[in-house]
Amino acid sequence: MPPRLTTPSLFSASNLDAQQTTPKPTTHSSWIHAHCDGGARGNPGPSGYGALIQDNNGAVLAELSEFLGMRTNNYAEYSGLLGCLQYALDHNHPRLKVVSDSELMVKQIQGKYQVKSPDLKPLYEEAKRRIAKLDGFEISHALRHKNKDADRLANEAMDRGMKRPGSAAPIPTPIKATPYPTKAEAPPIPIAFANRPAPAAAAPPVPKADAMLRGFTRDGVVHILGGVTLPDGVFVKIIRE
């Protein structure tokens, strides 16, 4: 699935005829700047990346946001970098500066860290191939609070993938089982017990709270076998045999 891409409008309604002729690609000489971020909820888990791309004067050129499926956090970080590189190549921007809050990825691209993960190595090699096609490239690390826009776009991608409000692509959410009974459920209906004479010798034993008892019903009354008497106010669970 290609990333969601938004860019400023190039044409207005007054010059609609200008859209009929496709202009030749223009190679830009100035630097563009990209803030990218990636994340995963679960690591691995539902993941996505986001990127904000601006020109040299700070004007927004594009916002990238893509859901990646069940991936790791580092996979998502590399996917964000690859998205920025591809944008620069596709739109003829030969000079790109990237800011990321992933220290691992930044130092691997800079050659300060080795890439040992078999999952990240293909992404690293693809990033290097795309970087080699540019005339200029720089990458630097920044703390997350300086990368808020990219973080927002990455979370929007994950929200869409997890089918939260306003999202599109669903990811199944596991259902957590709860023990019976729960507070949210209605309590079991109290059961009326048959009157029985008190034993002559000793008081009948009182079963433990989790004891399994056997009995039968007659005329809507539960009769418990074994001479067991339950105190008043006890709730029981009946399993039909």
From TrEMBL:
EC identifiers of the protein: 5.4.2.12
Keywords: Isomerase
Segments for region (Disordered): 1-29
Gene3D superfamilies (alphabetical): Ribonuclease H-like superfamily/Ribonuclease H (3.30.420.10)
GO MF terms, alphabetically ordered: nucleic acid binding; phosphoglycerate mutase activity; RNA-DNA hybrid ribonuclease activity
A Pfam entry, by short name: RVT_3
Domain RNase H type-1 intervals: 28-159
Transmembrane segments: none
PANTHER family xrefs: OS05G0353850 PROTEIN, POLYNUCLEOTIDYL TRANSFERASE, RIBONUCLEASE H-LIKE SUPERFAMILY PROTEIN
Protein name (record): Putative phosphoglycerate mutase
